[in-house]
Amino acid sequence: MRAARMYGRRDLRVVDLPELGSPPPGWVRLRVEACGICGTDLEVYLNAPRSDEPPLSAADGPLTMGHEPAGVVVETGPDVDLQVGQRVAVEGHLFCDTCFWCRRGDYALCATLRSTGQGADGGLAEEMLVPARICLPYADTLAPEHAALAEPTSVACRAVRRARLEPGSTVVVVGGGSIGLLLSQVARLRGAGQVVVVEPVKRRRELATCLGADLAVAPEDAGQALADLTEGVGADVAFEAGGRPETVRRALEWTRKGGRTVLLGVTNGTLELDLLSFLLSEKELVASLSHTYDVDFPEAVRLLETGQVQVEPLISDRISLDQVVTHGFEALLAEPDAHLKVVVLPNGPVEPARAADLEATG
Ligand SMILES: [Zn+2]
Ligand SMILES: [Zn+2]
């Protein structure tokens, strides 16, 4: 079996592995049809500790990357309800289900959390083993490449939930990458009145308005545009999806007094906060971490199945597993603005009937 394995910082290799064998109780073996690459993967690729150090290491050393897979069940372990041949999207969290946070349903905060592609083998492989519980069957009308975007869509669903969006709210999304473009769609579906996307790359701004944003502006124009839209008070909710301290600062700045700033971009940086003005503005700063298998993920899959969230326009590249380094990770690093969502097809292109579907919806 072929898999893209991380051996250390910026050292990803497509290698032959022994066959995976039968899944244990409660698990299934999937043939991976599609797996997205996202910003978090790039963070791991660039900044992960050596492969023999936690949290990257799988039990046996090098780690198969990929946390946005969709696949077909090819074998089920005991005590599994899924059927062989069923198509599923994979949520990805391997949580203990017994700790304080799991008992509250906050699975992403699990004391011993690992995820596919981060701490456990992921989906950039021809096949993978995964707990059945985090595999969600999806309708045959949804293409596997689109199902692979259930994971980032569920990130957006959670962030919108964390924002406690009120109907008619003015929302600003800082960062028009895949997550930002999904967020702007989900926020609109969940009642946002005005949606403004702030993004430096012109092509992404055009895409944002195609996907339903009311306004897409460059960062230097955003302050004025928001002031014009909101009688000078700022957005009810700002989502930070840029993943840099600077974009966090701007998101806070563009949030109105008494409004909410939701952080979901991944960054290692730090931010200085003027505590007096923060207090006087009574803003809320809320973090939103990934998703849950039982709430956010099913919501995302339904939004994709029903076509309420459009993902085909976000897919910039479809590549083979062998191209994962050159046309995937390194291409995204070399020319981040030239790509959006790169989807890897580890078992080759999807079958023709589905390709026809894609053209019809694309
Ligand atoms: Zn992701
Ligand atoms: Zn737990």
Q: CATH H-level name of the largest domain... which superfamily?
A: Medium-chain alcohol dehydrogenases, catalytic domain
Helix vs. strand class:
alpha/beta
Percent of residues in β-strands: 25-35%
Shape: globular
**Biggest beta sheet attributes:** 7 strands, mixed
CATH architecture label of the largest domain: Alpha-Beta Complex
Number of helices, counting only DSSP H or I runs of 4 residues or more = 12
Roughly what is the average pLDDT, rounded to an integer?
Answer: 92
Rounded radius of gyration (Å): 20 Å
Question: CATH top level of the largest domain?
Answer: Alpha Beta
Cofactor: Zn(2+)
GO molecular function: oxidoreductase activity; zinc ion binding
Protein name: (R,R)-butanediol dehydrogenase/meso-butanediol dehydrogenase/diacetyl reductase
Keywords: Metal-binding, Oxidoreductase, Zinc
